[in-house]
Amino acid sequence: MVKTKLQQAVSNLPERERIIVQLYYIESRSLKTIGRALGISESRASQLRQRALRRLRAALVQTWRKRLRMSLPVVCLSPGYAPQATSSVLGENPGAVWESPYRKRNKQPLA
Questions:
Q1: For the whole model, what pTM was predicted?
Q2: pLDDT tier for residue 99 given thresholds of 50, 70 and 90
Q3: Is 87:93 a contact under the CB 8 Å cutoff?
Q4: CA–CA distance, 68 with 65 (Å, rounded to integer)
Q5: Domains in the chain: how many in total?
Q6: Which of 62, 96, 98, 103 is deepest in the core (most CB within 10 A)?
Q7: What SS3 class is residue 94?
Q8: Burial code of 60-83, b = ≥16 C-beta within 10 A, e = fewer?
Q9: Containing structural domain, residue 56
Q10: Mean pLDDT across 97-108
Q11: Is residue 102 domain-resident?
Q12: Each residue of 51-97: pLDDT tens digit?
């Protein structure tokens, strides 16, 4: 299932990004080699690879969000919800407060 979704997401990439992903991840070519083959710099090849990864990640996240919406309680899906309940839904410590690893260390209140 994940493999199918990933293949579908890769096929939806713009041609140049799709070529870079295939050469880099499937054929294990270096960015320098890919850049030379496409007539771009190694740096630009790296930028396009990163853009492709962001697109793929967004496509897969969107797919999984749809699946999660079907399985999680409605209260977990409301915007701005500090997911204290998700820990119990996922079977972890029921009293634990969820904290995003992306929040800055100066603890700002969850909005």
A1: 0.58
A2: low
A3: yes
A4: 5
A5: 1
A6: 98
A7: coil
A8: eeebeeeeeeeebeeeeeeeeeeb
A9: 2-72
A10: 55
A11: no
A12: 999 999 988 888 877 777 666 555 454 455 454 444 444 445 544 45
**From CA 71, how far away is CA 61, in angstroms rounded?**
15
Residue type, 83: P
Residue 79 lies in a domain: no
Residue 92 placed within a domain: no
Q: String of b and e for 5-40 (b: at least 16 CB within 10 Å)?
A: eeeebbeebeeebebbbebbeeeebebeebbeeeeb
Name 74's Cβ contacts closer than 8 Å, sequence gap at least 6.
Answer: none
CATH number of the domain enclosing 40: 1.20.140.160
In a domain, 110, yes or no: no
For the cut 60, the answer to whether the pLDDT of residue 1 exceeds it is yes
